[in-house]
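Hi all, a correction to my earlier message: I attached the wrong file for Protein-L-isoaspartate O-methyltransferase. Here's the right sequence:
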Amino acid sequence: MTDLGALRESMVERVRARGISDTVADALRAVPRHLFLPETAPADAYRDEAIVTKRDADGLPISSSSQPTIMALMLDQLGLEPGQRVLEIGTGTGYNAALLACLTGPGGGVVSVDIDPDIVDRARRRLDAAGFPQVDVVCADGAEGFPGRAPYDRVIATVGVWDLAPAWLEQLGPAGRLVVPLDLRGVQRSVAMERAGGHWVSRSVVPCGFMRMRGPFAGPELISVLDHASDLTISLPEEREIGDVLAALDGASAAFRTETSADRGELLDGFGLWLAVREPRWCALFETRPGRLPSTPTDLPGFTVATGIVERGSLCVLEHGRPGGALAVHAYGPEGPELAADLITHLRDWDIAGRPGSGDLRIEAHPAGRGPLSPGAPVLDKRHTRLVLRWPGLSPR
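and the right structure:
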């Protein structure tokens, strides 16, 4: 017989290694994740991994149970206290809503909103089975929040959002806090924000990766499967003409050595964000079965993950250099060498700047079209907000 308690405790100990609070760890112990994943073997349900629970007609994931570690980190960012009222955008399996209910305790309230009626129905049944009938699950467009229970002390999105919906900000109380996986030109960071006068400022920024929000509030990001045989997929911050990527990958290529060494964590957290907010041609490529991509320093278990630049049927991506040595850039297509030179320049600039990462980043959210424009502070204009990104101590370029 499977020892569910031991499996759960093992998961909690792995998550605790990331420095989460005792309060959140206790919530993870109290909520049986396997009940929210009835089609998953318990041993798999208690791995510290995201589990896809629904795909679209093209096979792309559209709903999942997020990795417990990132869920715990976001719950710590949220800073919940007993008795608080919470709005969750993106119900998923209902597991995170149950954790929210544990953390708000007696006297609190949790409203979870999802646009997909099938997901809402399944989450309702699983919350009831797990002993959390007090959670309200609503089928609606999360971009509108849920005004009937406002104001809220906290709002959390468990789905990737491109912009801050005005409804969330309006439905938060004066001392409220918002935690969202926010899109920063195709990469996501979990950002905890609070009011500061007429705008919002971040309290903490953590790397993350979530399914994108669907419906009218979806962003312009493009994720496209290029080759089903290898699951080769490209991600772009917005749709644009990039030419025949497969032909470029199947053609002649060349490798260029850089003068920079960096580990996987630095590249995923620091350089990935640096490139995204400074290079309009940036892209990410993913592969689940070996095919066209080289081995890269950002690979994940079971995934080849490549970051680079793509334009007019040519592209380049970071790859491993010599063991223990500097990184290399692999170039494809007629303009590949020129793109490689640009990628190497970005890498050098990031290195010279002190390798800034998410932990140093401060984000301000101002009303659309307003807010400061200053050298060295990337500005991302959205539908409803202007985001200003600052790394304290970083000299203007």
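Sorry for the mix-up. Residues 336-352 form the longest helix (17 residues).
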